[in-house]
Inverse folding.
């Protein structure tokens, strides 16, 4: 392992070098805003440049061995770097969406990019969380920034209500999560390092005690709120429906990605403690994939309907997490990447569509293909990538996670993927039919454009807004990422460190010896 | 106090916080109701570590991190309440029905 001595002063090459970029950027944004009178649009270039630089740092530090910082015990490896890069990518893709919203609504410009940058920074910390205290406070760092970001962008009633619900539910679930960790601290004799905890529990022969059994249940009950697994998904549709469309995608998707990265560490810690710990996440994954697709059928609002496919997608991601082998983690990383592009793309296209129709209702969009075929094509393409049509990303991501589940012996989870794909294809086909064929919808308004056109290099249709410009890479990624899945999964699988599994195997052997005595 | 009895000191504030967050109907009081839960979180490792004979005071030190998180959450709740009050008339949670299912 690459170890850093105390004499190392340079941040580059250390465990926290990627985090050293958003911190000064957010300070600069605050300083510019506090010293500048009126609105300043410097927040956008800074909040875009910072994640672009930040994503280059882990890519330039790509290596085979993990880096350990002896000063704080933080340990990172390339698997964590991939998760962190997902968070930064998320932040990059978010940036063009909200610029025009603030021009139109005349709300304060700095708040949203600052919260987004702070949430990105918070989401990057779980990757170097290697002891109990850091793992317990890591999810809070991003969640606390995401709570106000969903409601700071509008003076309407609905964003405020969504924010109140999100923050209340989020605060309570985080408290339950954090309350589960101290149960693992006391019995081993005051240990915070994972291996110290497991060794201490084995030595004190407390692996079957009630306190050690309560801890995983509490921790799981708290952590599954963040990726909105059923039945803790109630906040997601409210946030999707309540928040303005250009800003709505950031809180839920960032919360899911950050929670997935943290959950790998938590489940590695908990897996030796209880042989039956798989049961609870399996049940939650099954409920999420099925109910996420079924409840979407009954929705009348386009934005609320779009909240449910991510809930089902997080069920597929959880299958890879429960599998617990390198292929499972690779499927988790790959599907997370698809999830980011598809969901952001879907919301960007719905934002364009809603700005022309003036409504979120699905029924009011009937027959819009006759008025503007290109506009109607956008929401058609938006949910389909993960629905199951090749060469889109769905038919490559879902079978891979189902295959990982079969490989790990999780047979109840394997048929869930194809069944729910059928439901989602049916439901998306209904929307496409409504857009293309039926009548009774609203008349489309003329497109609102900003005064300055975005120069395009070579395309027949000049993008008239930043949202359109930002949608283009998402369209390309979400429709063609399925074809490039093999190099992505190979890279992810080859870079998952074996130390995680070797050490866990040692502890499992100790547990087996103790229980057989 | 033995290790088996140590988490009881954290159980009471935890129970109070859960009950308060479930039954709160006033939107101004609702962010304050779950605040006893971080208190329970702080009490648990401090007493468990002491009873288990921990050599270092890592549980007590971790309480500082938990307090930082709890105070940030309280600050955000305090900021959300006036913003909500300006835009939304009803201050009761059971009258907030603008986001329909």
């Amino acid at each position: 392992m690459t170890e850093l001595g105390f004499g190392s002063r340079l941040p580059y090459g250390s465990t926290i070098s990627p985090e050293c970029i958003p911190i000064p950027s957010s300070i600069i944004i605050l300083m510019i805003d506090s010293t500048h009178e009126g609105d300043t649009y410097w927040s956008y270039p800074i909040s875009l440049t910072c994640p672009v630089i930040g994503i280059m740092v882990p890519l330039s530090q790509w290596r085979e061995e993990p880096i350990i910082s002896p000063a704080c015990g933080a340990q990172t490896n390339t698997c964590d770097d991939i998760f962190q890069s997902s968070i930064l990518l998320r932040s990059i893709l978010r940036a063009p969406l909200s610029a025009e919203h603030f021009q139109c609504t005349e709300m304060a410009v700095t708040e949203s990019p600052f919260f987004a940058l702070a949430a990105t920074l918070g989401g990057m910390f779980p990757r170097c969380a290697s002891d109990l205290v850091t793992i317990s406070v890591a999810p809070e760092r991003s969640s606390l920034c995401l709570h106000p970001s969903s409601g700071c962008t509008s003076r309407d009633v609905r964003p405020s209500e969504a924010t109140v619900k999100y923050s209340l539910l989020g605060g309570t679930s985080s408290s339950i999560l954090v309350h589960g960790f101290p149960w693992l601290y006391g019995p081993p004799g005051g240990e915070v390092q994972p291996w110290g905890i497991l060794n201490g529990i084995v030595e004190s022969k407390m692996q079957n005690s009630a306190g050690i059994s309560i801890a995983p249940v509490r921790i799981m009950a708290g952590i599954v709120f963040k990726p909105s697994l059923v039945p803790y998904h109630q906040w997601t549709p409210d946030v999707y429906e309540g928040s303005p469309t250009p800003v709505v995608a950031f809180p839920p998707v960032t919360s899911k990605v950050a929670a997935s990265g943290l959950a790998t560490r938590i489940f590695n810690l908990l897996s030796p403690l209880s042989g039956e710990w798989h049961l609870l996440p399996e049940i939650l994954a099954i409920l999420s994939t099925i109910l996420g697709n079924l409840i979407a059928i009954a929705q009348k609002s386009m934005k609320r309907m779009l909240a449910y496919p991510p809930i089902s997608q997080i069920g597929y991601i959880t299958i890879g997490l429960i599998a617990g082998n390198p292929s499972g983690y690779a499927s988790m990383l790959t599907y997370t990447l698809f999830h980011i592009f598809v969901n952001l793309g879907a919301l960007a296209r719905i934002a364009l569509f809603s700005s022309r129709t003036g409504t979120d209702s699905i029924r009011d969009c009937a027959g819009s293909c006759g008025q503007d075929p290109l506009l109607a094509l956008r929401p058609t393409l938006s949910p389909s990538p993960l629905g199951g049509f090749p060469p889109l990303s769905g038919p490559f991501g879902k079978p891979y996670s189902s295959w990982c589940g079969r490989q790990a012996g999780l047979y109840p989870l394997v048929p869930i993927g194809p069944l729910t794909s059928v439901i989602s294809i049916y439901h998306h086909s209904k929307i496409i039919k409504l857009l293309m064929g039926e009548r009774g919808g609203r008349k489309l308004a003329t497109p609102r454009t900003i005064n300055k056109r975005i120069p395009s290099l070579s395309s027949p249709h000049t993008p008239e807004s930043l949202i359109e410009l930002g949608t283009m890479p998402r369209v390309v990624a979400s429709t063609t990422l399925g074809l490039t899945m093999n190099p992505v999964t190979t890279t992810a699988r080859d870079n998952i460190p074996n130390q995680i599994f070797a050490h866990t195997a040692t502890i499992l052997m100790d547990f087996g010896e103790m229980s057989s005595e | 106090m033995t290790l088996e009895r140590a988490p009881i000191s954290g159980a009471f504030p935890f129970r109070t916080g859960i009950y308060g967050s479930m039954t709160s109907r006033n939107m101004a009081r609702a962010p304050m109701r779950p605040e006893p839960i971080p208190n329970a979180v702080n009490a648990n490792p401090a007493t468990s570590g002491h009873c288990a004979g921990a050599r270092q005071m890592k549980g007590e030190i971790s309480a500082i991190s938990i307090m930082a998180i709890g105070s940030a959450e309280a600050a955000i709740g305090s900021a959300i309440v006036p913003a909500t009050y300006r835009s939304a008339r009803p201050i009761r949670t059971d009258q907030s029905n603008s986001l329909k299912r």
About this structure: Residues 278-444+462-483 of chain A form one domain. The radius of gyration of chain A is 23 Å. The first strand of chain A starts at residue 2 and ends at 3. Residues 334 and 489 of chain A are 6 Å apart (CA to CA).
